[in-house]
Design brief:
377 residues; alpha/beta; two-stranded antiparallel sheet; 10 strands; globular; binds iron/sulfur cluster
């Protein structure tokens, strides 16, 4: 009998194929003004024994999937067919484990928001149990706050690497101390630098998240420049762009209502993105725009070789006639465009022209787009 397995609400998009194991519940900080993910939810540690029971249950699911595979004539092999059949018979969790095993069972993501906050000894015990149960696991990743990373010693981080931790995802959001204080990030730019460097020194792949538009109008100049400073000083393996969308249930929404924060327009955010990229120097980071809220998905590539290409994409968008920019924004937010080249698709264009005229006759595109963006957050 499988005991109840607990999983948290989120993971990075790049960990879509990873097995999700919940080490702690919710976020120990839970104060960032833009983030409602864990609002009203109390942080708690899970007992090591409880987490190990979850791992044992995943193992039990693997055994049941092997039985199902034999029953289906697949010779005990767990592949996409077995995972699909498991979904129909046992539900999503079996599908999750089945598709993970079908793809090699290598990647595991530790939830929730700040797994490194666990005592290192407890974390090592869990990781040891996991790798004994699933020897195929060779890449374990997690979210961690910079301040939490800073509390670990270099020796502890090295031990975690030996135990399988390969990548840490950290929300930097901005490099500006003023912005970070305003959004209550609980870290300064230099903390992000120190934590990023400590992880790199320990041999961990570092993925830092930056929120385009996070400085609003007040810090529109400072935010991209200071963020570039932090990225230049860390040289992380990845920077993932996210674009600010003020979520209704966030503290930031109240700040907007009171007039304390004025968000940038989409075009202003694109200009800010240009300043940020232009000011990245001497690093080998890969920039990734893998989120639907980023207007220009094609602004992706490795530095330094793709820098001009990325700036070129931004310039191409900014040089479009205003009507084309509106059409592109509408197409992107409506989910029918991904790249600037999509503007030349005549069938879609005709429909977007009609939709745009309708929207403009009733109000503004910004209001309509705000409504569409809310569907993505
Ligand atoms: S640390 Fe992360 S999860 Fe926690 S409140 Fe901030 S953004 Fe949200």
């Amino acid at each position: 009998m499988i005991s109840m397995i607990e999983q948290g609400p989120i993971r990075p998009p790049s960990e879509a194929g990873s097995l999700l194991i919940r080490l702690t519940r919710n976020c120990p900080w839970n104060l960032c003004a833009f983030c409602p993910t864990y609002k009203g939810k109390k942080f708690s540690f899970r007992q090591v024994a409880e987490i190990k029971r979850d791992i044992d249950s995943f193992k039990e699911i693997e055994r049941e999937l092997i039985n199902l595979s034999n029953e289906l004539g697949c010779g005990g092999r767990i592949d996409g067919k077995v995972a699909g059949a498991a979904y129909g018979r046992y539900g999503f969790l079996y599908y999750h484990v089945g598709s993970w095993l079908a793809s090699g069972g290598r990647n595991v993501f530790l939830q929730d928001a700040d797994s490194l906050i666990m005592k290192t000894a407890d974390l090592l015990e869990v990781l040891g149990h996991l790798r004994a149960a699933f020897p195929s696991v060779d890449r374990i990743t997690t979210y961690a706050r910079s301040r939490t990373v800073m509390k670990k010693s270099g020796g502890e981080l090295a031990e975690l690497v030996r135990a399988g931790i390969r990548r840490v995802h950290t929300g930097v959001e901005s490099g500006s101390d003023e912005v970070l204080a305003f959004i209550k990030k609980g870290a300064r730019g230099d903390d992000h630098i120190l934590a990023g460097r400590m992880l790199k020194e320990a041999g961990v792949s570092v993925c830092q998240y930056v929120i385009l538009g996070m400085g609003g109008k007040r810090w529109a100049e400072e935010h991209p420049l200071q963020t570039a400073r932090v990225i230049n000083d860390v040289d992380p393996d990845f920077v993932r762009f996210r674009t600010l969308a003020v979520k209704e249930d966030s503290t930031l929404a109240g700040m907007v209502d009171k007039g304390d924060f004025a968000p940038l327009s989409e075009d202003e955010i694109v200009r800010e993105e240009r300043v940020l990229i232009e000011n990245l120097h001497g690093i080998k980071t890969r920039l990734v725009s893998d989120h639907i809220l980023n207007l220009l998905e094609e602004v992706e590539g490795r530095l330094p070789e793709d820098k001009e290409k990325m700036l070129g994409s931004i310039d191409r968008y900014l040089a479009l006639p205003e009507r084309d920019r509106l059409i592109f924004r509408l197409g992107r937010r409506g989910g029918v465009y991904r790249f600037l080249d999509d503007l030349s698709r005549r069938d879609t264009r005709a429909r977007l022209e009609m939709a745009l005229d309708q929207i403009l006759s009733e109000g503004t595109l910004d209001d309509a787009i705000d409504e569409m963006r809310r569907q993505y957050i």
